Fold each of these.
Amino acid sequence: MSDNLNLPRRKALKKIGTGMALGASGLLSAPAFAQNKPLKIGVIAPRGGIAGTAGEGGIRAMEWSVAKLNAMNGIGGRKIELVIQEETTPKETIDRYRKLVLQDRVDAVHGVISSGVSLALAPAAEQSQMLTLLWDGTTQDGVKEMMPNPKYVFRAIDNEVDAVMSSLLAIRHFKGSMARVAGINPDYTYGRNTWTTFTAILKKFGIAHEVVAEQWVKVGTMDLTSNVAALKTAKPDVIFTSMVFADLPVFMRQAHNVGLTENCKFVIPAAGWQHTAMKKEFTPEGVVFGHSTMYFDNPAASPLQKEFVRWYADKYKDYPHWESDRAYFCLQLYKAGVERALAAKSGSWPSSIEIAMAMPGLKVESLGGPASMRADHIANQVIFQGLTTHKNAYDFPTLASVETMSTEQIQKPAGADFWQWLESTKFKV
Amino acid sequence: MSTVFTSVASGHTASLRDNKPGWFARRGLQAAIFLGVVALAAVPQFADAYYVSLGIPFMAYAVALLGFNLLFGYGGLLSFGHALFLALGAYASAISARHFGLTSIEGMLLCAVGVSLLVALPIAFVASRFVGIFFGMLTLSFGMLFYSFLNKFYHLTGGDSGMNVPQPTLLGRSYAAMGKMEFLTGPFYYYCLVLLALGVLVMWGIVRSPYGLHLQAARDNEVKASYLGVKTRQVRGVAFLISAVYGAVGGVILGVNTGLADPELAYWAHSGHLVFMAVLGGFQQFLGPVVGAFVFILLQDELQAVTQYWRFFLGVVLAALVIGMPGGILGTVRALWNRWRKR
Amino acid sequence: MTSTQQTPLLEAQGVGRSYGQFIALEGVDLRLNQGEFVSLVGPNGAGKTTLVNVLTGFVPPTHGRVHFMGRDIRGSNSVELSTRGLARAFQLVNVFPDLTVRDTLTVAACSQLGLRWRLFGDARSHRSAAEVVRATAAAFRFEDALDIVASSLPHGKRKLLDVASAFALRPKVVLLDEPTAGVSTADKHGVMETLLVAAREMNVGAILLIEHDMDLVRRYSTRIVAMQGGRKIADQPTDDFFSNEEILSVVVGKLEGTA
Amino acid sequence: MASLIGILMAGVFHAAALFLLTSGLQLVFGVQRIVNLACGSLYALGAYVGISFTTWALPQGLPVPMFPLALLAAGLVVGLIGLPLERLISTIYKRPESFQLLLTFSLILVFQDVLRFFWGANPQQLANVAMHYGSVSLWGAQMPAYNVFVILLAIATAVGLGWFLGRTTLGKMLRATAENREASAAMGVNVRMVYLLVFTLGTTLSTVGGAMVVPTAAVSLQIGVDLVVEAFAVIVIGGLGSMKGAAAGALIVGLIRAAALVLYPEVEVLATYVIVLGILVFKPSGLFGKAAV
């Protein structure tokens, strides 16, 4: 054991000083020897625990596209090398992030799903001037405090868009039968924000409704029988739930098993992470079902997405969800950014700030469809949602008709405060 | 009561021989502390910045564990909810920064100490009645109560996204110009080192003081102790308070290091890691926890680097320690040393 | 030898203790005067230990009252009484396994000197504490064993350490629960001698001894209290006691029965 | 009315699950004074294996109505892991209580990754076979028949254990050992065998519990760690080492949660802890436990 433990210190002695000087001040490897050196990309994603599914979806897409890119000569002539680290608690993850920055000396970091972790990472990223592309959004309030006008941090989306869209769809489809609404949402910021968004939009459209039940589920709770019973007593017409993890199918099944699904509509803005687990036998038709930025079964999907979905299905006997798209998008965006910056510097390798500067305004072809980076470092995406149907070859429901909205309508504009924007803006159903 | 108690006592077979003025205990300990401080002070000069940055969580845990071990090693009380106080320290500094605009680390520390005492007082009052498993379960419950409080009262605590812990000023000097990493691996590193050194000295004083003796007497045999005028319950209560303060100070360092105070800090599994470190280093030795923290940080780092199943190996190591090497690293070293000296 | 005029150091008046139905102690009177060495004898289950528990405030009496140095002990527990000068040594060998002899004695010295809440400063190098430790160690011939861990002392020594730690409280009254149990007959007298010498050197006021060994009892006590079934059946100067055949037969007879 | 029954039943069901989780814990503590922090991990293990075995067995021609048997079998078989575990833990019988917590905590870490190694990060669930039995309506409240079955199973377990400990010679032997290890050893009881048996029985109760409950929910890597807290709440309220306690504690926690969700969802989690602490302060031994300190 003790040997094992001296190892790091021996390593340490080799790279006297330099680590800090370069790593911390983020001057990336000098152009001279840049081209022949592999391009290191750090990936931070959950592998175990409740969010493991999400992490896997992203990592798999990452590996798929890296293989493709490396087949053609990588990014800017440099082969890509992934350094994957597990995302756990903020305290632990920040140490691994520093490891990526200071020891592995990666060129950029992609990934991160939980708000807590991204909020801890973002300032560190700005501090160490490390280009960091976050796959999944972070919640409003935290972002305002922890990452005001970021320079090095980019986000693939703003969290609440899914909720905004499915609220609008709910009104479009359920208007007139929404007298009694109930919410059962994860007991953390995301859950609360989405629920507030939903009710706010109902008000906005003057939908006369009464909130008959409001429940907050501790993430990872696997026995929701009591919650379901409580909901049943409330006799809601519509249930809104932004559960995203394994607890969602459990909830759906337990709701179905006590007949809650018979005469009650469901609105699930972010069901996509669990789509293959939402079996037909307990997920009814006519549920507002969100797939966020990628719907695997989209008939109008690009050949690229079709190819990816086929590969994914063959390799993992499963169908990909939006996290694959986010990961793919971030990689493509980074590639485009590097190439633009390279061109600007006529071939000599750009610094991370130069790459960061190059990214806003870029349009890239992502799995789910075209997407672009805004000036405020939040991407514009296309969101896929719709009502569920059982008419398909799978054992889980798909979308009867794919309804799409661009985040240009349903995402807060650059610099705006989400809640004020929600107040003021005019949506069309 | 005494039955539970003696069973606790009988376990400390190797005993805290620091009381015994042998070469190892006196000179050895002083030498160890001195060399340790010197070595740590030298680290930033040669080591890779990453390992320097690891030094901060190490020192945070080292401080927290010094307190933790006053309870466990010297008091015979195993707390499975001690992460509560690290979380408390982190949140105290976050809140004092947000609501009172405190930006000096000294302010944060004071705030953390105050809050931890306030919280620890009622817990100590209840917990000091228990020993053994019940003490463990009680502290675990309190820890989890606090954990769910952090999640529920999000208006105050920021819920799951936690609270920002800004880069503080040290002794009134601001390092805002400096990048966070340079701050952490530079001035802050040395600041923590001084804190740790102070923590060690103070704790060294406490364990050898009359109070410290009474605490150990209470651990070894409650009834007999009470007949020698030891107020066992109060003595334990005070130990809990002291350990809470140490925990909170460690929490402040962790908070500044992460830049965030988040509920996971209070989750009981985190307490489990504290216990792990104490056992790893040797909870029957004064410096055991410090060594434990050091080895744990490097061990976890190495394991995570080589396998995604690092928890498995941590578990195996802990099991092996508990069964085969209850003395932990220092305990074993000392045993070997004593054997060598006998020859 | 006993003068009824002076206020006794320790006095029990009609104390009784019952656990639910079971009556462990009933109407026991006991006086312990300055300079007395009283032995408490009786068959097992006679209530001797219960009596000591009550006298030391370890368990409150259900009837009657106990005065220590003129003050009712009601409401004060063994911790306070021990610091006020009422010490007790145990039947079992249960000193602190992990502490050295020095530390064990220092624990008592510190409580007696009221240093309890001193959080700093090495307890062992505190002058007056060290003095108490030195005196006690000297009295019990522990000088050269001071830095040995209690659990690694020889059995006889361990029993003595138990007693010594009680003496380190500089008590007025010491209650000894079979200090020689498990000690070879040869050594028993040795133990008692050291004990008495120590008591004299450290001017202990009075000693109450629970003992089965009639030789020891006869040899050392000034007065003997016999108990049976929770009641006091005799309270006489040693010589009278040993001339009182029927009581002796009760006590000794029962003893042989149990031994 | 119907809704009230519905909530009540939900609470009782939750209680049943909790009882199955904690009965093993209580048995082991009752006899051996060992607290097994890894009880949640064992519960999870039973669930994972149960799922895999059942999903394998059904295509092999196991008639769907028979799936509980598959789960039961799986639970019983993995329960045997108790044998090596007991041998492992026996190494610290003579150590202070704290060491049990340490060793069983290390087991949690190990299990978490072992489960991840075999079943991956994704939480697992069984196809909705549970609904094969349809649902029953009690006074108008609808509930899956399988949930009722789980409740009955829990009751059966409680009664069975009561009978086993109270009436059978072996049970009496166990209680004797619990009372006084040395004495019963002197009376020729093979304490070592008794401990091996009790611990394995306890383990099996947990694994079977996990396997039987999982069709109504799902199992994730996390529950091993999360369940510990709920289990502790139950046994602290009920009293360590008491079967009655486990039942009472489970009912209290289950019903409180169900009630809180209807009346005041905000306090759902907090309510439990408050009760736990209340008990610890005012009746440390729990409702049915022997004195704590």
Amino acid sequence: MSPHLPVLQVVVPLLAAPVAALVRRPRLSWLVAFLAALWAFGSAVTLLHHVLSVGPISYHIGDWAPPWGIEYRVDQVNAFVLVIVSGIAAVVLPYARASVEWEIENERIPLFYTALILCMTGLLGITVTGDVFNVFVFLEISSLSAYALIAMGQDRRALTAAYQYLIMGSVGATFIVIGIGLMYVMTGTLNMADLAQRLPAMEANRTIPVAFAFLTVGISLKLALFPLHLWLPNAYAYAPSTVTAFIASTATKVAVYMLLRFIFTVFGVAFSFDVMNLDRILTPLALAAIVFMSLSAIYQPNVKRLLAYSSVAQIGYMVLGISLASVLGVAAGILHLFNHALIKGALFMAMGCVMYRVGSVRIEAMAGLGRTMPFTMAAFVVGGLSLIGVPLTVGFISKLYLVRAALEQGMWPVAVLVLVGSLLAVIYVWKVVEVAYFRQPIGDGSIREAPLSLLIPTWVLVLANIWFGIDAKLTAGVAIRAAQALLGVGS
Amino acid sequence: MKILGLYNYWIVIGLMMIGFYTMISRGNLVKKLVGLSVFQTSVMILYISMGKILGGTAPILIEGRENVVYTNPIPSVLILTAIVVGVATLAVGLALVVRIKEAYGTIEEDEIHEQDDVM
Amino acid sequence: MDDRVILRVGAKILIPFILLFALYVQFHGDFGPGGGFQAGVIFAAGFILYALVFGLGAAKAVLPPIVAHTCAAIGVMVYAGTGVVTLLLGGNFLDYNVLAHNAEHGQEWGIFSVETGVLITVFGVMVAIFYAFAGRRRSEP
Amino acid sequence: MSPSALVGLAVALPLAGAGLVLALGKWPNLREAATLATGIALFASVVSLLGPVRAGLRPTLTLMEVVPGLSLGFQAEPLGLLFALVASFLWVVTSLYSIGYMRGHHEEHQTRFYTFFAISIASAMGVAFSANLFTLFAFYEALTLCTFPLVTHHGTEKARRAGRIYLGILLTTSVAFQLLAIIWTWQLAGTLDFRPGGILAGTASKGVLSVLLVLFVFGVGKAAVMPFHRWLPAAMVAPTPVSALLHAVAVVKAGVFTILKVAVYVFGLDLMGTLAATPWMAWVAATTIILASLVAFTKDNLKARLAYSTISQLSYIVLGAMLANRWGIIGGGMHIAMHAFGKITLFFGAGAVLVAAHETEISRMHGLGRTMPITFGAFFIGALSIVGVPPAGGAWSKWFLGLGTLEAGQIWLLAVLMLSSLLTLVYLLEVPARAFFGMPPEGEVRPEGIHEAPWPSVLALVITAVVTLVLFVHPGPVFDLVSLVVPR
């Protein structure tokens, strides 16, 4: 393994982005983007393997030793997140070609791929860096390209959705900068590991809790924690199919990773939970997200919006796991981060197939698709079952760990609410399934099954849902080790 | 005196609240962006003021002179990045507003909502 | 706008100095205050002044939008490329020491190269943003 | 072939059969032949497990470790083997019956029907041979989901509403209660494996374990303990073979089987006997027995009446488990087999009447016994078995259940059993009585040309009726198998 892999993980896609813009030919720019995503995936898998077998890697940019220079640090936690982000990108890009050609004008396609690759670069950068200000820079790279990507949706509401996201996202990012600045004022360092060492001595100072508060709220805005989720449903619903599939399964996940990083690595579990009592805020909000957002999802007439609300609810599951602050709970959160990326990726990609053939993703438009687009809808059904948490799918594994973590601490009402969330998921998934399978097809019968270039990537994710649901040793093992690393116990 | 001595923080807080309030209270999309800019500017002042040392000079090494007090350059460098980000955000935001105007014929939030609700 | 002689003449006098000042900020950036970002903005400002006074058409004839876009892309490649070159020369990413025979010169060249990348990108992006806004016409009265 | 491979084969065969059926969809005769062949092969492989299991072996097959400490695995033990034997044998018979019924009734989407039927059987086999609670739960949910297309087979608004109730109740109870109980068990015991003597003893206070027991009993919605029984009558919109095999045998028996298995292998009878919740749950079952019988009286639709009868009879088995003694388990276990043969005969009869005479209401079946003597003769035998009187197999299981109540010292529960038998006698025997002796009201003329249903259907119901009689004369094999579960 090249020792430069941590930085190449980010730099290669960063170089690919201008290349994709320069080639100016839709097909070629797609190829560049695809190769970049493949590279990122390959290197992320190598890094994960290395971290698991050897141990964390620290890379010094410009050979300046931390805490003066910028450090890229890969450990069990972010290596896993790197694999998720780049893996989803590598699956979404083959899917993108046909979908994007249909949804976006020809001359803007190279720009689309540039933005997509930049977005991935930003997300990978947030994940890999060990420098808090670097986090902000990459966050803005990914966010700005995400705003642009969302605005490329066909519906004009995509514009207002992107605008709303821009305003709320910028406020969140600015909060994060304030938090970082206040920490810098107190400690004079921006390196995460260094901060973690210096902060405990200053806990009594009032600036540190303020910094903590700004950071938590800022990150919560980015990860769409209820009730800071208002930007998310429209952004997911009106963005181009490819963008929804990519962003839904990566952007909020990376924000969850940021939350993990800050409250566990930088501030430490003792400060976050014993001094600041973060769990008293996060647990109720997470539970509210699970229940209220699942209920909202039931009443959505647009399936992409329905899934978006469900995403907010699912983020509640991840945050709930984190708020339990135990190895099992944090592991459940990390596990769901991975699993939910697979679930929502598959579901949004299935909806992209529907969009491609039917031109709408409203529930009425699904009528009879069980017969006219059997493979697409079968993918949706399996994805939906996984969302519900039926055994032998990834969704089940997440719920298993989450419920166990709650029971471990004797919080059985929490366990019950988690399961109630699954039941609400049954309702909103089944609403779509019934229309697809029991209503007569509308229109002149010209609707055909989606092309293979869309179906194969969708089914790759669907099968991943089943595969990691049957053999979860790898994912669960990594999640447990990551949680141990974050909490600083065992391993 | 202590409270007045921290005047830079009062400026920061004042600007921050002005920007935040503008963002929340105004329905005009451009005015919201102006509010966002003011909000971001307040953070820039926060950074720059915390790096400043009274009597400090620009951190340039000059041969033959020692014991010179320098201003910490790192916050300035950091905030330069934030300024770039702010400019980019503003540009993207304005571009969006232009296209919203073309699509809806208005940049007033409530009128846009009305048009969307009709659909 | 053709009759505003003072503007036209004034601009013609100012623009070279603006561009020159941009280059000063750029080339002096590795010794004193300044750098690629400021230089890029000033350079673009000079150009935008030209477009404001002589019209968008004239400006686009001098610098087609596609060139601005290309600049934006190339700058990023120069920046990241510098990092890759240091990698190829055996250092860490952006480890300028390996760029020349000794560390001081290496740092100087490295910073200069990176700042050039920034200059090109910022210039390209600024002009592209200007074109994007200025090029639009009111779709309805 | 080694016994452990046979266990895997029992789950894989019906799945392969489903694929075969799907592939042969264009040729109905070949398709049905495939179903029958798979059914016979399945039954043969389950029967060949009988020897090793009776010799004391417990063939085990672990497919996959899902997460550390949680594996997907199968194990053949006596109770599961009994359930698998009954289900696989009746699948063959039901397939025979379906051929007559589906063609005689001109049903649509027959390929889909047979495919999901086979998958359902595979899931039932998975439940029967599950080696731990996780595997059991996985196949339990699979069974719910793959019977959904069968319940909503007709695709009408009524079928859709029934489907919603079906899925709603079964998923709600299983996710909200059963899954919670399973994860809680895992948390407490550190394992989910089924072990003789149970895994929960001494892991938590009696109060917590009592809550766990209640969660399990209500969580197994397929056991149709009131108030979670509504799905079973709703499921009767399905074609009759589905009601017969799945909603009298495979699905509902998977439910009570789960409860028996949890009682014996998770809690252990000794522990069960000390829990405060056990007698309470026994009374919940007893209440279900009586109430469901009373509701059955009010139903004029034959399938609805049979459905409520099933609810009542299922609670016999739950009651057997909650008695927490040897005779209770033996009686409950035997009742799985006895009730299966009796009830499936009744459903076959109901379906045959529907196909041949297009009648569904009991009040309009007067005089049909004279044109369809074989059907109603078999119906009579089935009814006797459900009531629990000689010369039908049901007598034995009720006998042992009665012994169980006495051993538990619950004389009133014995009274409930007696009363329920009386009620059953009245509401079930009304049907053949009307058919043989009833006179049509004045002025109504029954259309000419009614005769017995198509021969495969008649053959099927004759087979099950005969087996019901045989089980009275030779209950030995069933008894021996079940008594292996609870060694003396």
